[in-house]
């Protein structure tokens, strides 16, 4: 039996242990973890892969999708509750009645168009063949034209909120995706009664209550100081967009760690958890990880590295940091400014290369050595000296989130020769993502927001070569979260606060958070070698990304025209 009760120092029986469930909704799957409230111990976890994964070529009925689309099916999210949560609970040995709360986190900005009761439009039989009726995943980048107009008009009108987003609005966010919906399928736009972050939609399904979480509202919904962009501004974008906020978006805001509601009978049946336990206000996968990594003081940046990377950090200073995804008062921790930046492609880039650039001979050699493709390429790359491959790459295969905020940019590799090997390209791509992170850190530093330590969370922490490269490139000590399920742990910690087990998330972080500080230290020699390569990266970054050469945008237009 798993620690059903604990003893105090006098040997007297104390109150039974209590537990919380954290559910992390990622790009391709959802993960549930069972966490002990007293110390954050993770007793068991389970994962469920989405049946429909990411729809980027066609809908389930075969309807084709244009380039840069990325959709999902919301019933896949419910399946995580039906499958992963009961499985994790069974593995843990914890009795359902010991669970006091459930918390969730989600990729953002992932948007669900729904009816007033929360029914996703894609579940209506007459709309199953309409792309705009589906969930728009965070990496849906087909609203770049709308994002550009939102940014340009805000600059022209000197809208004060634009400074909180580093001067640019992303195509990934709520308003850009909604404006694309209006302009490309006005009928579906008219049918949309609620434009809902998936982070809030799943809480709605668990509790029966729709509450907008403060995190996504601030970072992705342009809610600053309690105010959204004005109807006058929205009308200037498109007259039919003027009432978007009041008719489809605006809703009561729940603060992070607040109680959203209680688990409904239906959700209890899905999960095997007791009806009526606490359901926490929703959160974003990256932001919820910061307290799990014990990053509750200024200057500690957490990079959550998976298919993409999100960089979050709290500070006691406000500054306009160019190209940031947003800065929100209390967006991560109460009483501090929460900053967000990110890279749209990281693990996705490494995965793309393995799918397309891993020859059969390498696969045979890896199999003989008992390695998978990533392990094999990493081992070969680790044998190289810095710069030996003669390459430099830009990490823009999925566009640039920070600091250029332009998803029409694309990847590039310079220095290829007939002697270039797969491990050369693989290492150059690893390094490119580290250079992208350094670019973000320098934007913070140059704006007067110091970054003193980098803490890494996510699946890529297992690649020791990648971690050392990041430390050397950034010249920062790298801490590592001591959890394989950082976002789910963070969601569970917030659930503990919502259940009343801790007074606030800082207290929960001190008791339940886990991180190993300064696991990797920068080596001065390697750092100096990387300084030379970073200078070349920065030349390419500015040349292709800041308007000197628009070839990437021209190629994107040619591709779009050819795809019609």
Automatic annotation (TrEMBL):
<keyword id="KW-0054">Arabinose catabolism</keyword>
<dbReference type="InterPro" id="IPR005929">
    <property type="entry name" value="Ribulokinase"/>
</dbReference>
<dbReference type="Pfam" id="PF00370">
    <property type="entry name" value="FGGY_N"/>
</dbReference>
<dbReference type="InterPro" id="IPR043129">
    <property type="entry name" value="ATPase_NBD"/>
</dbReference>
<dbReference type="InterPro" id="IPR000577">
    <property type="entry name" value="Carb_kinase_FGGY"/>
</dbReference>
<keyword id="KW-0418">Kinase</keyword>
<keyword id="KW-0067">ATP-binding</keyword>
<feature type="domain" description="Carbohydrate kinase FGGY C-terminal">
    <location>
        <begin position="302"/>
        <end position="499"/>
    </location>
</feature>
<comment type="pathway">
    <text>Carbohydrate degradation; L-arabinose degradation via L-ribulose; D-xylulose 5-phosphate from L-arabinose (bacterial route): step 2/3.</text>
</comment>
<dbReference type="InterPro" id="IPR018485">
    <property type="entry name" value="FGGY_C"/>
</dbReference>
<protein>
    <recommendedName>
        <fullName>Ribulokinase</fullName>
        <ecNumber>2.7.1.16</ecNumber>
    </recommendedName>
</protein>
<dbReference type="InterPro" id="IPR018484">
    <property type="entry name" value="FGGY_N"/>
</dbReference>
<feature type="domain" description="Carbohydrate kinase FGGY N-terminal">
    <location>
        <begin position="19"/>
        <end position="289"/>
    </location>
</feature>
<dbReference type="Pfam" id="PF02782">
    <property type="entry name" value="FGGY_C"/>
</dbReference>
<dbReference type="InterPro" id="IPR018483">
    <property type="entry name" value="Carb_kinase_FGGY_CS"/>
</dbReference>
<keyword id="KW-0547">Nucleotide-binding</keyword>
<keyword id="KW-0119">Carbohydrate metabolism</keyword>
<keyword id="KW-0808">Transferase</keyword>
<dbReference type="GO" id="GO:0008741">
    <property type="term" value="F:ribulokinase activity"/>
</dbReference>
<comment type="similarity">
    <text>Belongs to the ribulokinase family.</text>
</comment>
């Amino acid at each position: 039996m798993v620690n059903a009760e604990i003893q105090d120092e006098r040997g007297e029986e104390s109150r039974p242990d209590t537990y919380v469930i954290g559910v992390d909704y990622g790009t391709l799957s959802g993960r549930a973890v069972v966490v002990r409230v007293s110390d954050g111990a993770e007793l068991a976890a389970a994962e469920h892969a989405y049946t429909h994964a990411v729809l980027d070529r066609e809908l389930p009925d075969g309807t084709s999708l244009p380039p840069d689309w990325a959709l999902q099916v919301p019933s896949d999210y419910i399946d995580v509750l039906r499958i992963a949560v009961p499985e994790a609970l069974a593995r843990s040995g914890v009795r359902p009645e010991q669970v006091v709360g459930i918390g969730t986190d989600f990729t953002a900005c992932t948007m669900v168009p729904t009816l007033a009761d929360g029914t996703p439009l894609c579940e209506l039989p007459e709309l199953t063949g309409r792309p705009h009726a589906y969930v728009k995943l965070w990496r849906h980048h087909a609203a770049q034209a709308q994002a550009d107009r939102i940014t340009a008009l805000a600059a022209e009108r000197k809208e004060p909120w634009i400074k909180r987003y580093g001067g640019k609005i992303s195509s990934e966010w709520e308003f850009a995706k909604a404006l694309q919906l209006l302009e490309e399928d006005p009928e579906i736009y008219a049918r949309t009664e609620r434009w809902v972050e998936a982070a809030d939609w799943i809480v709605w399904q668990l509790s029966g209550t729709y509450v907008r979480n403060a995190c996504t509202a601030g970072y992705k919904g342009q809610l600053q100081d309690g105010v959204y962009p004005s109807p006058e501004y929205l009308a200037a974008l498109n007259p039919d967009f003027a009432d978007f906020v009041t008719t489809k978006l605006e809703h009561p805001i729940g603060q992070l760690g607040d109680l959203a509601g209680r688990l409904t009978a239906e959700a209890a049946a899905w999960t095997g958890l007791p009806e009526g336990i606490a359901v926490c206000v929703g959160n974003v996968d990256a932001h919820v990880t910061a307290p799990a990594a014990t990053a509750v003081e200024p200057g500690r940046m957490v990079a959550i590295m998976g298919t993409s990377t999100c960089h979050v950090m709290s500070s006691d200073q406000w500054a306009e940091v160019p190209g940031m995804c947003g800065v929100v008062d209390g967006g991560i921790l109460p009483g501090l400014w929460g900053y967000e930046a990110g890279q749209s492609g990281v693990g996705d880039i490494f995965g793309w290369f393995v799918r397309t650039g891993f020859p059969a001979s390498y696969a045979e050699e890896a199999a003989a050595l008992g390695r998978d493709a990533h392990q094999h390429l990493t081992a070969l790359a680790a044998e190289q000296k810095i710069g030996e491959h003669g390459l430099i790459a830009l990490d823009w295969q999925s566009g640039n989130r920070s600091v250029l905020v332009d998803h029409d940019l694309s990847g590039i590799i310079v220095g290829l020769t007939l002697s270039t090997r797969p491990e050369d390209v693989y290492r150059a791509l690893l390094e490119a993502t580290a250079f992208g992170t350094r670019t973000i850190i320098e934007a913070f530093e140059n704006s007067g927001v110091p970054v003193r330590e980098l803490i890494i969370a996510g699946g890529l922490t297992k690649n020791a070569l990648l971690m050392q490269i990041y430390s050397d490139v950034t010249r920062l000590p790298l801490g590592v979260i001591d959890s394989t399920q950082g976002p789910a742990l963070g969601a569970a910690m917030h659930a503990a606060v919502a259940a009343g087990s801790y007074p606030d998330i800082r207290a929960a972080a001190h008791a339940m958070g886990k991180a190993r500080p300064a696991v990797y230290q920068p080596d001065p020699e390697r750092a100096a070698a990387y300084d030379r390569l970073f200078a070349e990266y920065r030349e390419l970054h500015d040349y292709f990304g800041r308007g000197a050469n628009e070839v990437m945008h021209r190629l994107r237009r040619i591709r779009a025209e050819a795809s019609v």
